[in-house]
Amino acid sequence: MRMTALCTFLLTAVALTLCGCAKSPDLGGAATVTNRLIVRLTVDGNINDLFYYYVAFDDDGNSADGPLPVVSSPYGNGWGTGSFTRFVEYHQGTFRVFTHAVDAEGTIEDKYVDRPFEFSYPQGGKELRFVLDYNRNFPADPRTLDINFITTDEIILDPNLQIQKRFDGLGPQGSDYVSIPMRTNGVFSNYQAAIRESAGDVALPDLDMVDWRIEIQRQ
User: Fold this and answer.
1) Which is nearest to 196 in space by CA: 171, 219, 173?
2) Minimal CA–CA distance to 131: which of 177, 93, 182, 95?
3) pLDDT tens, 164-188?
4) Per-residue pLDDT tens over the stretch 77-109
5) For 24-63, what is each residue's pLDDT tens digit?
6) 115-160: pLDDT as tens digits
7) What's the CA gap between 207 and 51, in Å, rounded?
8) How far apart are CA 142 and CA 59, in angstroms?
9) What share of the chain is helix, strand, coil (3-state, %, to 5)?
10) What is the pLDDT of residue 24?
11) For 49, phi and psi rounded to 5 degrees?
């Protein structure tokens, strides 16, 4: 899908205390993580464990391209297209982090890496929250990350199927990913966005995103 707009934000310095969350045992204790990327997503209905919730990150340094939702055949990996290098998936009560690559022939490789460093289960609520170890996931320390939130009720892989896919992404068409500077502390939110996410752009409330927030904590 063609990008319709690109949201740019003013940086706001903050200092917040993290709430209690589950921690990935593979990544050790909180003291070992000095730089954190904290992500929150809120839907109009409730988080449905049968559905799929994604946050896609692009660290290629080119803010003219970024993550987009899959809306029609060919479906690729079933949910995401455009330019992105890593993503977090929530489905069936599990958070998982993947790398994403597409080779010259168009073959997609989504490779499981780990769980987020910290995460909060929605427990029937409206919000997903997770924390990434920034250094581990983005070791090149890019100046910016292009980020999109994408939700869908099913993963369609067969390119021969012609199905009206139900999904949501940032902006009215899902194509308004955000480009966020990463080399300082700050909070970026739906409230600050040039195009705010609001209810009503997808018929299923459990997919319909209404708010998001991204926090960068660096030491």
Assistant:
1) 171
2) 95
3) 889 999 999 999 999 999 999 999 9
4) 999 999 999 999 999 999 999 999 999 988 999
5) 544 444 457 899 999 999 999 999 999 999 999 999 999 9
6) 999 999 998 899 999 999 999 999 999 999 999 999 999 999 999 9
7) 8
8) 6
9) 5, 40, 55
10) 56
11) -65, -15
Which three-class secondary structure state does DSSP give residue 26? helix
Matching residue, tokens 């921690």: 23
Burial of 173 (0-12, 13-18, 19+ CB in 10 A): middle
* Length of the chain as a residue count: 219
The domain limits of the chain are 7-217
**What residues contact residue 58 under an 8 Å CB cut-off, 6+ apart?**
65, 66, 67, 82, 83, 84, 85, 145, 146, 147, 177
Q: Are 170 and 197 in contact (CB under 8 A)?
A: yes
- The string over 84-120, giving b where at least 16 C-beta atoms fall within 10 Å of a residue's C-beta and e elsewhere, is bbbbbbbeeeebebbebeeeeeeeeebeeebbbbbbb
